[in-house]
Amino acid sequence: MSPDIHLHGLKKSFRSGDVITPVLKGIDLDVSCGEMFFIVGPSGCGKTTLISILCGTLSADSGEVMVLGHDLRSLSQNRVTEFRAQNVGFVFQQFNLIPTLTNCENVAIPLRLQGKSARESRQAAALMLERVGLAEKINERPNKLSGGQQQRVAIARALVHQPALIVCDEPTSALDSETGSQVMELLRPQSQDKPRTVIVVTHDPRIYHHADRIAEMEDGVVRRTLSQAEALRTFGISPQT
Ligand SMILES: Nc1ncnc2c1ncn2[C@@H]1O[C@H](COP(=O)(O)OP(=O)(O)OP(=O)(O)O)[C@@H](O)[C@H]1O
Ligand SMILES: [Mg+2]
């Protein structure tokens, strides 16, 4: 079976005036369907740039970017936007919830973007909020919630349209250890779910044991990819933490 994500020779530079700064310098990476795949590495090494390219919010300068069978570099901007709306869920460090909407309305956004009716979207959003343990907060606004609860709303929003790919940028760094662990458990597919691939960028060794594999980036390249067992040994982490 071909991998869900295949990146080869991926390069990206940013230009500021006359200065061009290479940020991704030839990324090779394959991620299989259903993997919980972590990307780690020092600040500024290109992690956010990399995941922005693999979900199509940023375009690569060169290389192959195959995601869920789509060659993202060959698609028009409209098709990439459509691809993202159908296939990708996002979770960010600072939750990125819209404060003027209720939790239910926030979670319903991906379904509305797919053209589902307001009523159908609200019903599915309410069910998803129940699944993440927030049945009582459906009609409240995000600012009444704790950080962990806000991140659970954000996860409900990422999962509600059952995307094949979830992309998370530092999902636990604003949370305490136990809440961070609960958030990671919610991201792992349950038996009744559609298979999904989860990419997590993180600085947080407390959650490394949730990874199936970990890619270590350094200065714009993937230095090595470790299995869970290798990663736990390498970073001296016990599987129970
Ligand atoms: N839009 C942009 N324009 C110019 N430079 C950028 C842009 N986005 C990122 N960069 C630069 O690219 C490099 C990599 O940034 P990126 O955000 O991918 O790093 P990161 O690994 O996610 O870091 P962190 O762990 O701090 O979030 C940095 O030097 C950053 O300044
Ligand atoms: Mg980043």
Describe the structure.
The protein is 32% helix and 27% strand. The protein has 241 residues and is α/β, with parallel strands linked by helices. It has a single domain, classed as P-loop containing nucleotide triphosphate hydrolases (Rossmann fold), CATH 3.40.50.300. Strands 6-7-8-3-9-10 form a 6-stranded mixed β-sheet. A hairpin with a 2-residue loop joins strand 9 and strand 10 (221-227). The longest helix is centred in the middle third of the chain and has 14 residues, at 118-131. It is globular and about 45 Å long.
As a percent range, the share of helical residues equals 25-40%
How large, in whole angstroms, is the Cα Rg? 18 Å
Record field, number of beta strands: 10
- Largest sheet properties: 6 strands, mixed
Q: Within the largest sheet, what's the order of strands?
A: 6-7-8-3-9-10
CATH topology, by name, is Rossmann fold
- Give every kind of bound small molecule, once each: adenosine-5'-triphosphate, magnesium ion
Shape: globular
What CATH architecture do you see? 3-Layer(aba) Sandwich
Find the structural class using helix and strand composition: alpha/beta
Taken as a percent bin, the fraction of beta residues is 25-35%
Number of contiguous helices: 7
Order of helices and strands: EEEHEEHEHHHEHEEEH
Poorly predicted tracts of residues: none
Instruction: Report the CATH superfamily.
Output: P-loop containing nucleotide triphosphate hydrolases
Number of domains: 1
Distance between the termini: 33 Å
Salient structural properties:
binds magnesium ion; globular; alpha/beta; Rossmann fold; 7 helices; binds adenosine-5'-triphosphate; six-stranded mixed beta sheet
